[in-house]
C-alpha cells in the first residue's frame, strides 16, 4: 500500500474551517480536489506533517495553531504606501491585491485609505487563525521526474519530456 511520503503526489478533498466553525473552503463543493507534491512546501507545514504516512481512503481531522499554518499576525507587516501604488482609483478597506514581495507573490489587504497614503496589511489573510481541516485522501502516487524538477504536480495533459529539468541530474 502506497502511503504519503516525500516525492509523492497526493490528491485529497478537504474542508477548511476557522476557529468560529465557519467554512472557508470546501474542495468537494468546488468539485476540485487538491493535488500537491509532498515534501516540497506546497501546503502549510502542519498539514503536511499530519498527512505524512497516511494512506488512500484515510479520513482525518486536523487542527492547526497559527504557527503551524499561516503564521502569527505581525504588526510590523502593516505599513503605509503611496495611493498611486494601486491599479484602481476606488480603494476601500478590505480590498485585496496580489503584489510581488521579497519572497515572491504576496496578498496585501487594504486597511485604511487616505488622500495620498494607503495603510496595507501584508500578513497572510489567514495569519493568526486557528484552522481546522477535514481531510480525505483520494490517491497517492510517485511523482514523475519532471514534477520533482518543477517542485509541484503537473497537469496530465503536459508532455513531461518537454519540461525543463533543472533539479535532477
TrEMBL record:
GO terms for molecular function: peptidyl-prolyl cis-trans isomerase activity. Residues 7-94 form the PPIase FKBP-type domain. This is Peptidyl-prolyl cis-trans isomerase. The lineage of its organism: Bacteria, Pseudomonadati, Pseudomonadota, Gammaproteobacteria, Oceanospirillales. Signal peptide: none annotated. Its main location: cytoplasm. InterPro entries: PPIase_dom_sf, PPIase_FKBP_dom, SlpA/SlyD-like_ins_sf. GO terms for cellular component: cytoplasm.
